[in-house]
Amino acid sequence: MIKCMLVATLFASLIFLIIDVIWLSFATKSFYRPLIGNLLTDTPVMWAAALFYILYVFGMALVVIQPCVDSTSLFKTVYTGFIFGLVAYGTYNLTNMAVIKGWSPTVTFVDMFWGGSLTALSATTGLYIAKKIVHY
User: Fold this and answer.
1) What is the total count of domains within the chain?
2) pLDDT tens track for 100-122
3) What domain range is 100 assigned to?
4) If we measure between CA atoms, which residue out of 63, 48, 47 comes closest to residue 12?
5) Residue 28: how many CB atoms within 10 A of its CB?
6) Residue-wise pLDDT tens for the chain (136 aa)?
7) C-alpha to C-alpha distance for 77 and 65, rounded to whole angstroms
8) N or C terminus: fewer CB in 10 A for the chain?
């Protein structure tokens, strides 16, 4: 079980990071900048971004992947991952919307859906690949 969880977490983290970097490279100019551009830095604070990915993957491993390792249905991973991502991204975005003047409701809801979808996809795909490799 532990080997499967670790392999799944490795694949899920790679999938999450690659897709999120692609999304951010396109969405920053065409989506985020027009809606909250005055709030964005010119360049990301890389240590903060790295710490986010480390913490997020740790949470995804413990809250989504580990409880789903023994499940025979990948659907559990899909909905658990979606809820985890929705809650995590929702916490960030809804707090920003509550306290930051000019925070976009569109950014809030698109980003929440993005977090849920990306987490569901990453965790589910990572676990699927791990089960094939580890023969779990």
Assistant:
1) 1
2) 999 999 999 999 999 999 999 99
3) 2-134
4) 63
5) 13
6) 899 999 999 999 999 999 999 999 999 999 999 999 999 999 999 999 999 999 999 999 999 999 999 999 999 999 999 999 999 999 999 999 999 999 999 999 999 999 999 999 999 999 999 999 998 7
7) 7
8) N
In sequence order, the 6+-apart residues with CB closer than 8 A to the CB of 15 are 121, 122, 125, 126
Token pair recorded at residue 21: 């970097």
Q: Tokens representing 69?
A: 């390792």
